[in-house]
Amino acid sequence: MSRKRDTAEQIISKHPQAEVLQSNGQSIVEICRQIGIKEQTYYKWHKEYRGIWPKLRKISNKSLNY
Question: For a surface tag, which of 2, 23, 48, 61 has the fewest beta carbons within 10 Å of its beta carbon?
Fold first, then answer.
């Protein structure tokens, strides 16, 4: 059975959703259930992309303007 991998666009769109839900006081388990990822995936993304979220947002905003 092959693994489903999220594209960069999907990761960029799901992370802000998770931030909003977390700021509303929801647990990580609830957040992962709502955005459709596993808890391990959330922590992996958080570890890998923690410092580059602002850069990714700028890139995605620039690409939307073209």
Answer: 2
